[in-house]
Amino acid sequence: MKSYNLLMILVVLASLISCKNNEKNEIVLPKYPVTLGDPFIMLYDNVYYAYGTNADDGIEVYTSDDLLSWKKASNLALRKQDSWADRWYWAPEVYYIKEKNKFFMYYSADEHICVATSDSPLGPFAQDVKEPQLADEKCIDNSLFIDSDGKPYLYFDRFNDGLNIWVAELEDDLKTIRQSTMTKCINVSQPWEEVWPRVNEGPYVLKHKEKYYMTYSGNSYESPFYGIGYATADSPMGPWTKYDKNPIVQKPDSLVGTGHSAMFTDKNGKLRIVFHAHNNPNNIHPRLMYIADVRFSDDAVPVMSITGEIIKPVIAY
Q: 99-112 pLDDT, tens per residue?
């Protein structure tokens, strides 16, 4: 045990010595990537909040001022005891709803879609009623979209014919699904999506120049060919038409397993996209968070593309 402790001390000293010192001889500590799968970023009150899949007992949250350096909150945003399920907390998305003065977290637990609320973006988020939004059916990746007329919709994945994406209207409580409105959006239909297995998942919808854009991921998250495509529609309920040059993200900059994205507007009004990739070409976990820019062309039907240098966020100590 003593020799082990000595070895650890030597490793730490070697790491510190190897770090580059600035002009004031201050030690610059090593930087580590943000390990979040299915990441989502919200800008609120001039602070960025990142949520994602990582913890076994809930949902983590990180904060940043610049999208580059992040700090992990000491407490979970969502804890196991505040959710109906006791495992598999995935793909959280968080929105501040001004009319309700609440933060809403949409997330998956034990392969069911759920929603929890909080008075703070840091949590704790909790379910008022500890049950899924669809109690009798496995679904994942629920994503909120509120149209310009104030009408709310929920997009999510259903486990029928592989994974495919559906939409439904929400009641004004932003929790209750109007099941009679459930409508299929997209399923596996393009060659790039057919590597393995039958998966269209991780929807995120925004509106641009009266056109609705849905980003989604194809192939299994375990596959190095996991990627991001998009579809367009004239209504939140569809019908949806996939972009014929999909995917728009697949194996960029030597990354593999790139997918499950969401979009947000940064402090300068620039539209960004956040997604995860495998830890490295040989290991899936823990997945890492990345950020890039989103651009729309000037065509009659604007084409969406991912541009600019890909940002690799790091943990700040």
A: 999 999 999 999 99
pLDDT tens readout for residues 135-188:
999 999 999 999 999 999 999 999 998 999 999 999 999 999 999 999 999 999
Domain at 36-315: CATH architecture: 5 Propeller (2.115)
Residue partners of 239: CB distance under 8 A and separation at least 6: 233
Q: For 45, which DSSP code?
A: T
> What is the reported pLDDT for 316?
86
Say which residues have a Cβ less than 8 Å from residue 247's Cβ, sequence separation at least 6.
192, 218, 227, 228, 229
pLDDT at 314 over 80: yes
Q: Which of 50, 36, 97 is nearest to 272 (CA)?
A: 50
Residue 90 and residue 140: Cα distance in Å, rounded? 8
Write down the catalytic residue from 38, 60, 93, 169.
Answer: 38
Tens-place pLDDT, residues 232-277: 999 999 999 999 999 999 999 999 999 999 999 999 999 999 999 9
Rounded-to-integer distance, Cα 263 and Cα 41, Å: 8
| Active-site residue flag, 66 | no
Given a contact cutoff of 8 angstroms between Cβ atoms, the answer to whether 179 and 170 are in contact is no
Residue 45 Cα to chain centre, angstroms: 20
Of 61, 175, 165, 64, the closest CA to residue 121 belongs to 61
Residue 229 contacts residue 241 (beta carbons within 8 Å)? no
- 201 assigned to active site: yes
Give SS3 for 9: helix
Catalytic member of 193, 201, 244, 293: 201
Three-class SS of 207-257: EECCEEEEEEEECCCCCCCCEEEEEEECCCCCCCEECCCCCCECCHHHCCC
Tokens 């800008």 label which residue?
A: 43
Query: Can you tell me the distance from the alpha carbon of 285 to that of 218, in angstroms, rounded to the nearest whole number?
Result: 19
Output the pTM of the full model. Answer: 0.91
Spatial neighbors of 29 by CB under 8 A, at least 6 apart, are 16, 19, 317
